[in-house]
What does this fold into?
Amino acid sequence: MRYQLELFFTALGFFTRLPVPAWVPWSPERLNHAARFFPLVGWVVGAIGAASYVAFVQLLPPMLAVLLSMAVTIRATGAFHEDGWADACDGLGGGWDRLQVLTIMKDSRIGSYGTVGLVLMLFAKAAALVELAARGDMHVALALIAAHPLSRLASTSLIHTLQYVRDDDSAKSKPLARRLSVIELAVAAVFGLAPLALLAAAEALAALIAVVATTLWAARVFVRRLGGYTGDCLGAAQQGSELACYLGILAAWNFI
It folds into this structure.
């Protein structure tokens, strides 16, 4: 049990800026095995976002509450996945071949594709959450709690199904480049799917369909352009899947 707790804190420390106990050891091998808890990290991030929104909306209009809650979650994660999304936009948008795409994605500077992609992603998520707020504040809170774990499950599924394509030791996500065991994948699936129970049946189904479709499309693009995934690809998949979850919930309202 202690080992499992250590793995969770390893995942939490890697994917967020939140403090973890000093007694938790770190190693690439532990991070490798911590993949089962990536969706559980989404529980923490989603809860932070939901609590922030509920607190802010008591004093401010929903749009400002949404933006501030997004800022809180970005601060909590260190913009980890947003950075991956921007790098993936730059590489896939500006690169002509596999090597050029990987080189661009490795560059710490952000280009025009990354800037436009990041701005549009943040605006789209904010707009979707504001639309959810029009139906009630709890819709926003529940959507955040469901979307963050589910989107991290989407990224985790790519670790399990695709090949890692970087071979340089400086790659931050190289320790994750191992397929999950059946048990590890099952644990990740439970943590990623369980929060969907908080949504109405139609909302949960639509969100799941949207996330699966987005993940499959992302996997197809990554394999076609790169032959597999990188850490930036995982961040991009998380961001795209998070947005897809919100859009799925909104789409479901047309049938409720």
